Amino acid sequence: MSDLPPRRALRALAFLGVALLLCAPPFYLDVFWLRIGLFAMAAATGAVGLGLLTGTAGQLSLGHSFFLAIGAYGYTWLGGEEPGAGLPTVLALVAAVLLAGLAGGLFSPVAGRVRGVYLGVATLALVFLGHHILVSAEPVTGGFNGLSVPPLSVGSFTFDASGPELVVLGVPFGAEERLWYLSLALFAFTWFTARGLLLSRAGRALKALRDSETAAAVMGVPVARYRAGAFVLSSMYAGLAGALLALAFRRVVPDYFGLALSVDYLAMIVIGGLGSVAGATAGAVFVTALPLLMTRYADQLPLVTAPGSAGGTLGPTEASRYLYGAAVVLVLIFAPDGLGGLLHRLRARFRMRRRPAAAPTSAATAVRAKEHTP
Amino acid sequence: MSAFLASLLNGLSLGAVHALVALGFVVIFKASGVLNFAHGSLLLLGGYLIAVWHPHLGFAGALAAAVLATAAIAGAVDRLLLQRGDAGAHTTPAQTIVTIGVDVLLLTDLSRRIGGDLLPLGDPWADSVTRIGPVSVADSRLAAIVVSCLVIGAVFAAFRYTAWGLSLRAAAEDAEAAALMGIRLSRVRTGAWCLAGALAATAAVFLAAFPAPGLERTTGQLALAAFPAAILGGLASPAGALAGSLLIGLTEAFAAGYQSELHVLGDGFGDVAPYAVMVVVLILRPQGLFGAKGAARV
């Protein structure tokens, strides 16, 4: 039933609608909302990469913030003038992604052999060693104070308010508006490559690896190579995300790329649902937007006070951390496959009810759903 | 020479404290296959409870109460949050991530309460110092070594001689067979969590005592240094955790003690040296120093 042309056409139409909808915000929303969007798109790019690694290949990684840092600092240093190589910024962006991939590749002797929680802790080392290097290698990284990020420019067009003035349909296009489309384009690229990979032979191999390494090896999957490959790829997505974050922040500082950031990314993919691109995206938007929204509307929320007010009260950052800590715990307890999986199962159950004599496949889903829901 | 001795003693005492924490990781991992990322927060919780209770109960009373309370809370985390669904499953990455969520919750709450303060724990050693030959050592450091030896000895004896220890070892060996033999896996693992909580609260005392200024909200992060210790030894090996902890403690102390010679590596290299050591060991032996190499036969 699902292969009928009308349904496909409907899908294409829905897709076009979403694409148009995502292009609209710069014309209607102010800078605050656009910045949330920029951070969310950058985070989603990184989360998709981590989703590939942890969700699909089953390798726990806490080192994601290290690769984000490589991307961010790589872009800033390669494209920057003052300390920096002064490359054309587009080249710097590409090089930063490759650099993150290279860093992942250098770590792959560990990533290819160490498994499960061991890998999680091994990647912890990357975060601490990376932070140490970022702080100590002052001539390159600017030490504690970090570096300011050069704006991306293609030819004479800069993704910054400083470039030639640009007004589209009566809306002046500043840095945020321009970056929005850049982020959107790069995120679309991420989305399609990641989905393509998941549906490909390599994606199936990675899933087989997650379910049983032995079985995968018997089926002819070169285990160590695929594990290392997943690691490198996820580092490259992280590198891209880092560069996008740097462009949105306009300044990179070492303290941002700590363990907490890695945990944030883990929370994103868990809340959204492991092993799905859409889930990672949804989780990224949730985790990124929550603290920003809470800060903005702190005075209107019950229990929450504005930042900087007297101690002992619940600040917006803390409130959002409570919320997302609780979200991680609750999602994993009640819906181990995340919000995406929950939706999926609800749909399956709904379909069952409509057609009691369902095909055996959907019946199996429903039974599994019962096991998962306490 | 005295610099060497000082580093050695410092390293031993640091290693002893790490061992308390690392043993907690190992016991939990053995019993439940979960790597407890909330361990640092549990440690902070134990320290915080001692800090809050010691004016009322005295140091010993507060310590005892905090150890019990932390043990109870760790056990409750396991019972209420982790042991849901298929309790028999032994490899559970999802449960490991749940502990990260628990860590976020606990840490947020505790750092909100502690704020920027330095809480004294009211320990009896204060800032007294003993001279041993050419070097002087803080009494709290010596106490750390003595207490850790006693506690760790007791834990090892419990592994070996008590019914719970036997059950734990059986469950770690083959959970299914142990369950069939009538061992209640859920009780065994909750017991392990309680033990780990108690160890963490004990370790908090020494992490906040004299050379350190007191308990701060970042004290729990010091427990992260015990991660490489546990991994180095092989996560499922208590003896390995001991060896790994000593190695990490000595590495830290010597990297800090010979800071000036290591200046090329940047200031504060001592804090990250354990991780560097861990990466090197994992490249050479992915299963840790004492871990068994798992073999798969098809």
TrEMBL record, chain A:
<feature type="transmembrane region" description="Helical">
    <location>
        <begin position="117"/>
        <end position="135"/>
    </location>
</feature>
<dbReference type="Pfam" id="PF02653">
    <property type="entry name" value="BPD_transp_2"/>
</dbReference>
<feature type="transmembrane region" description="Helical">
    <location>
        <begin position="60"/>
        <end position="78"/>
    </location>
</feature>
<dbReference type="InterPro" id="IPR001851">
    <property type="entry name" value="ABC_transp_permease"/>
</dbReference>
<feature type="transmembrane region" description="Helical">
    <location>
        <begin position="12"/>
        <end position="28"/>
    </location>
</feature>
<feature type="transmembrane region" description="Helical">
    <location>
        <begin position="265"/>
        <end position="290"/>
    </location>
</feature>
<keyword id="KW-1133">Transmembrane helix</keyword>
<dbReference type="InterPro" id="IPR043428">
    <property type="entry name" value="LivM-like"/>
</dbReference>
<feature type="transmembrane region" description="Helical">
    <location>
        <begin position="179"/>
        <end position="198"/>
    </location>
</feature>
<feature type="transmembrane region" description="Helical">
    <location>
        <begin position="90"/>
        <end position="110"/>
    </location>
</feature>
<feature type="transmembrane region" description="Helical">
    <location>
        <begin position="34"/>
        <end position="53"/>
    </location>
</feature>
<keyword id="KW-0472">Membrane</keyword>
<protein>
    <submittedName>
        <fullName>Branched-chain amino acid ABC transporter permease</fullName>
    </submittedName>
</protein>
<keyword id="KW-0812">Transmembrane</keyword>
<keyword id="KW-1003">Cell membrane</keyword>
<feature type="transmembrane region" description="Helical">
    <location>
        <begin position="322"/>
        <end position="344"/>
    </location>
</feature>
<feature type="transmembrane region" description="Helical">
    <location>
        <begin position="228"/>
        <end position="253"/>
    </location>
</feature>
From TrEMBL, chain B:
<feature type="transmembrane region" description="Helical">
    <location>
        <begin position="262"/>
        <end position="284"/>
    </location>
</feature>
<feature type="transmembrane region" description="Helical">
    <location>
        <begin position="190"/>
        <end position="210"/>
    </location>
</feature>
<comment type="similarity">
    <text>Belongs to the binding-protein-dependent transport system permease family. LivHM subfamily.</text>
</comment>
<keyword id="KW-0029">Amino-acid transport</keyword>
<feature type="transmembrane region" description="Helical">
    <location>
        <begin position="57"/>
        <end position="77"/>
    </location>
</feature>
<keyword id="KW-0812">Transmembrane</keyword>
<dbReference type="InterPro" id="IPR001851">
    <property type="entry name" value="ABC_transp_permease"/>
</dbReference>
<feature type="transmembrane region" description="Helical">
    <location>
        <begin position="29"/>
        <end position="50"/>
    </location>
</feature>
<dbReference type="Pfam" id="PF02653">
    <property type="entry name" value="BPD_transp_2"/>
</dbReference>
<feature type="transmembrane region" description="Helical">
    <location>
        <begin position="142"/>
        <end position="159"/>
    </location>
</feature>
<keyword id="KW-0472">Membrane</keyword>
<feature type="transmembrane region" description="Helical">
    <location>
        <begin position="222"/>
        <end position="250"/>
    </location>
</feature>
<keyword id="KW-1133">Transmembrane helix</keyword>
<keyword id="KW-1003">Cell membrane</keyword>
<keyword id="KW-0813">Transport</keyword>
<protein>
    <submittedName>
        <fullName>Branched-chain amino acid ABC transporter permease</fullName>
    </submittedName>
</protein>
<dbReference type="InterPro" id="IPR052157">
    <property type="entry name" value="BCAA_transport_permease"/>
</dbReference>
